[in-house]
Design brief:
This protein is an alpha+beta fold. It contains 6 helices and 11 strands. The chain starts with 16 loop residues before the first helix and ends with a strand.
Length: 219
């Protein structure tokens, strides 16, 4: 299965379904072994986790290891111009509702088909929202009903980089490193000891960042 399911950008982690749920309940990690990196800066946490990922790939028995990219998210921000909104008689809520309905989509009604319920979502066609230039040209109706204005008249659209997720544990920001290893060749305790040695030898941890291993047994 591991050889047949090699997909770009996806890391395999093989375990038994019930065991995976027990691991998740006891440690919060979905894989047999994992490392939690905690600190105050998401960028530092991500860099440390990637260094740990690189170190653990060389540990005998490792099948896959994946560090969360907690600081590598990309977002589209609509920065509203309040002066232009006031000029056209629009409020911030009006603009947000237009963005939600025209671009993000909004459920307008629900169809009932026997025991089944389906939401009817309405938004602009893909050609009108597939890139920033198209979004700038999206037409918004004026409250007076006397015309339409393009989105660029009331908002500045920007692609920004930010946190893809923010995980908090024990009052600190944290990121996880998921580790899958061959349990048929080594036990958890022995693998964890090897992993600790590899991390201690190859990963330089900033003073404000700490790591803690977690798996079937806490370390």
């Amino acid at each position: 299965m591991n050889a047949a399911l090699q997909l770009p950008g996806i890391s395999n982690a093989w375990t038994m379904p019930i065991k995976a749920r027990l691991d998740m309940l006891s440690t919060g990690i979905r894989t047999p072994v994992g490392i939690k990196v905690s600190g105050a800066d998401l960028k530092v946490i991500q860099k440390t986790a990637i260094d740990i990922e690189s170190a653990l790939q060389k540990v005998p028995g490792t099948r896959s290891v994946y560090a969360e990219r907690v600081a590598g998210g990309y977002f589209l921000d609509f920065v509203l111009d309040r002066d232009h909104l006031a000029r056209y008689g629009l409020s911030v809520d009006d603009a947000n509702m237009m963005v939600m309905t025209a671009v993000g989509g909004d459920n307008q009604t629900t169809t009932v088909e026997g025991r089944e319920r389906y939401g009817v979502n309405v938004r602009y066609a893909r050609d009108y929202r597939e890139d920033i230039d198209a979004l700038r040209r999206v037409l918004l109706p004026l409250p007076s009903g006397k015309g339409q204005i393009p989105m660029s008249e009331i908002a500045d659209l920007r692609l920004v980089e930010g946190s893809s997720m923010i995980r908090d544990e024990n009052g600190l920001l944290s990121g996880y490193v998921y580790v899958d290893f061959d349990v048929s060749k080594t036990d958890v305790g022995r693998y964890v000891e090897r992993a600790k040695q590899a991390v201690a030898a190859q990963v330089r941890r900033p003073p404000a960042t700490r790591s803690r291993g977690a798996g079937s047994t806490r370390t």
